[in-house]
Amino acid sequence: MEIDEDRNNKMRAIASELNILTRSDGSAIITQGGSCCIASVNGPLEVSPANIDMNKAYVEVIYRPKCGLPGVNERYKEKIVKSLCETCIITQLYPRTQITVQAQEMDDHGGLLACAINAVNLAIMNSGLEMKFHMAAIHCGLDSDDNLNIDPEYVPKANLTFSRIQRSSRSQNFKGNFTFVFDSTKKSLIGVNTDGKFTIQQYNEAQKLCKDASRKIFDFYREMVKKYATVL
Amino acid sequence: MRETILSNNEKSFVEKSILEGLRVDKRNLNEFRNLGLFFGQDVGSVICTLGATKVFAQVSCELSSPRTSRPNEGTIFINVEMGPMAAPHLEVGFPLSDSCIQINRILERTLRESRCVDLESLCIIAEEKVWNLRVDIAVLNHEGNVMDCSCIAAVAALAHFKRPDVTTTGDGEFIIHSPAEKDLVPIVLHHYPICVTYALFDDGKIPVADPTALEERVSEASLVLAVNSYKELCCMNLTGVSLTSPHLILRCSEMAAERSRRIVEFIKSILEEDEAQRAKGNLPKGFAESIALSNLPSNFHNEEIVEKIEQPEIVGIAESSSHGETSDDEVKIIDDNTVTSGKWIEVTSEDEDSSSDEEMPEQTNTRTSQDAPKTEKKLHSNESSEEEKTIVLK
């Protein structure tokens, strides 16, 4: 499944494949431009006594970097994805169980958090867990000339090697980075993650741009359902 | 979550069918699943698929101080991770699962202790600064034989990886060049060790190549042989509870050597393709392309797309040559083939002569009876006469 690059919205090409893992209940791999992420969902499963919740399912999220041991950044991303999953899955339907979500980054060319959230959404969709709504995450970068760039591609200089030294520099082309997450029913904001310096006007402008762009992602989800839900 | 219990019915079904030379996924006993390799955009990143088993590997490098025992050598670190993505019962973090530690250790022995990576070339200043290579292997889907899959992924990723170039000025100073200044330098690999796993059944008499997750759980033992393309044994690991014979190990290692040679050829051909793409100046599209072409075999598209490694197998060769021949000549042709088609056959015949091992003739019988045109029947009779010979010899 592929959506071609649209120059007006400046969204990168998205491609995805569902159900690529046999051992998981739901799985998806998604590439947005050069960024690539794979996600798997298992659940509802037996929960350990320490995490048991009588009213709803316990959601565990694991986020793995492509190399090196997971650190603070990965824990932070886990926390973001976890709170989003708890919002979009109807966890009350699966009390005293556990839902395990794992995301693995594979290629980082900017906007990886957005890519991971979209992958997780597709994986949950594929697993058949009941959802309140779908979520679409969009990354937006504020460059040094105060221009907003929707879903920018990190362009590696020449034939870039991958070493841990260069890892941290990946998204630092921009002085401000925004990741907005919208729901599919009311198109309202359900999550936001920012870093860097920006004004409140720039923030509002970025949110508006991302909200418009989120329609592309939801259209893409619709195409995916059309392609995979052949029984309906 | 605990691992799903294996029922006695499943267990005995697999065991009995293997005694008859049959496998749940219709493969022959020494047939391997299809292998696929997909390189990413970054150097040293690769997805390796072996049937439905999927593994992602990424090599990275960083500067560090050398070990005091080897001051002029770089270091290599291998990290295998199996989380709930691989299989629901697996957990990430500490304590590591036994299977994870085992794969890690065997890989370390295969890659580090066989000295396939030229660690001396990773030294910048002796006793002070060396490159530290790190191979991160993430198991995405555990459908059996993660060992082979992660070994192939690790070797391919190491062969694909390139590190930044370094110049030393002599007075203890050095400059790391960015890729824009100087081309990246590949890692020097002396040889490519490839792990080949056999699951042992029937008191260690029947080796089953490339076991699935189910077969792994049912088998008595597993034999891992790491062989490079020069037929040198780099690592051998026998785990489980089973007796085995030296003949079986010799036979398996012959087959493993052939398998290894083919895989190394395959890795090299894929590497060349990738290198040619990069040399043209267009950065490969990486995994995006693989998805767009539906190259990554999923269970949705349940076709076997990547079919580049043929199984190193006796009857397979005989069959392929026998198609379209007149029936009179066939037996002769098959005879020729069984004599010349590979060294391991000689080993098996020796094996049958010396030890009372009926397993190989049994296998071939069932294999040939599967698809049964007239030509195969002749082969069948031919084989069974061999079997009679062995019985006489006993």
Automatic annotation (TrEMBL), chain A:
<dbReference type="Pfam" id="PF01138">
    <property type="entry name" value="RNase_PH"/>
</dbReference>
<dbReference type="InterPro" id="IPR020568">
    <property type="entry name" value="Ribosomal_Su5_D2-typ_SF"/>
</dbReference>
<keyword id="KW-0271">Exosome</keyword>
<dbReference type="GO" id="GO:0000176">
    <property type="term" value="C:nuclear exosome (RNase complex)"/>
</dbReference>
<dbReference type="InterPro" id="IPR001247">
    <property type="entry name" value="ExoRNase_PH_dom1"/>
</dbReference>
<dbReference type="GO" id="GO:0003723">
    <property type="term" value="F:RNA binding"/>
</dbReference>
<dbReference type="GO" id="GO:0034475">
    <property type="term" value="P:U4 snRNA 3'-end processing"/>
</dbReference>
<dbReference type="InterPro" id="IPR050080">
    <property type="entry name" value="RNase_PH"/>
</dbReference>
<dbReference type="GO" id="GO:0071051">
    <property type="term" value="P:poly(A)-dependent snoRNA 3'-end processing"/>
</dbReference>
<protein>
    <submittedName>
        <fullName>CLUMA_CG019021, isoform A</fullName>
    </submittedName>
</protein>
<feature type="domain" description="Exoribonuclease phosphorolytic">
    <location>
        <begin position="11"/>
        <end position="129"/>
    </location>
</feature>
<dbReference type="GO" id="GO:0005730">
    <property type="term" value="C:nucleolus"/>
</dbReference>
<dbReference type="InterPro" id="IPR036345">
    <property type="entry name" value="ExoRNase_PH_dom2_sf"/>
</dbReference>
<comment type="similarity">
    <text>Belongs to the RNase PH family.</text>
</comment>
<dbReference type="GO" id="GO:0071028">
    <property type="term" value="P:nuclear mRNA surveillance"/>
</dbReference>
<dbReference type="GO" id="GO:0016075">
    <property type="term" value="P:rRNA catabolic process"/>
</dbReference>
<dbReference type="GO" id="GO:0006364">
    <property type="term" value="P:rRNA processing"/>
</dbReference>
<keyword id="KW-0539">Nucleus</keyword>
<keyword id="KW-0698">rRNA processing</keyword>
<dbReference type="InterPro" id="IPR027408">
    <property type="entry name" value="PNPase/RNase_PH_dom_sf"/>
</dbReference>
<dbReference type="GO" id="GO:0000177">
    <property type="term" value="C:cytoplasmic exosome (RNase complex)"/>
</dbReference>
From TrEMBL, chain B:
<dbReference type="GO" id="GO:0005730">
    <property type="term" value="C:nucleolus"/>
</dbReference>
<dbReference type="InterPro" id="IPR036345">
    <property type="entry name" value="ExoRNase_PH_dom2_sf"/>
</dbReference>
<dbReference type="InterPro" id="IPR020568">
    <property type="entry name" value="Ribosomal_Su5_D2-typ_SF"/>
</dbReference>
<dbReference type="InterPro" id="IPR033100">
    <property type="entry name" value="Rrp45"/>
</dbReference>
<dbReference type="GO" id="GO:0071035">
    <property type="term" value="P:nuclear polyadenylation-dependent rRNA catabolic process"/>
</dbReference>
<comment type="similarity">
    <text>Belongs to the RNase PH family.</text>
</comment>
<dbReference type="InterPro" id="IPR027408">
    <property type="entry name" value="PNPase/RNase_PH_dom_sf"/>
</dbReference>
<dbReference type="GO" id="GO:0071038">
    <property type="term" value="P:TRAMP-dependent tRNA surveillance pathway"/>
</dbReference>
<dbReference type="GO" id="GO:0000177">
    <property type="term" value="C:cytoplasmic exosome (RNase complex)"/>
</dbReference>
<feature type="domain" description="Exoribonuclease phosphorolytic">
    <location>
        <begin position="31"/>
        <end position="164"/>
    </location>
</feature>
<dbReference type="GO" id="GO:0000467">
    <property type="term" value="P:exonucleolytic trimming to generate mature 3'-end of 5.8S rRNA from tricistronic rRNA transcript (SSU-rRNA, 5.8S rRNA, LSU-rRNA)"/>
</dbReference>
<protein>
    <recommendedName>
        <fullName>Exosome complex component RRP45</fullName>
    </recommendedName>
</protein>
<keyword id="KW-0539">Nucleus</keyword>
<feature type="compositionally biased region" description="Basic and acidic residues">
    <location>
        <begin position="373"/>
        <end position="394"/>
    </location>
</feature>
<dbReference type="GO" id="GO:0016075">
    <property type="term" value="P:rRNA catabolic process"/>
</dbReference>
<dbReference type="GO" id="GO:0071028">
    <property type="term" value="P:nuclear mRNA surveillance"/>
</dbReference>
<dbReference type="Pfam" id="PF03725">
    <property type="entry name" value="RNase_PH_C"/>
</dbReference>
<feature type="compositionally biased region" description="Acidic residues">
    <location>
        <begin position="348"/>
        <end position="361"/>
    </location>
</feature>
<keyword id="KW-0694">RNA-binding</keyword>
<feature type="domain" description="Exoribonuclease phosphorolytic">
    <location>
        <begin position="191"/>
        <end position="258"/>
    </location>
</feature>
<feature type="region of interest" description="Disordered">
    <location>
        <begin position="342"/>
        <end position="394"/>
    </location>
</feature>
<dbReference type="Pfam" id="PF01138">
    <property type="entry name" value="RNase_PH"/>
</dbReference>
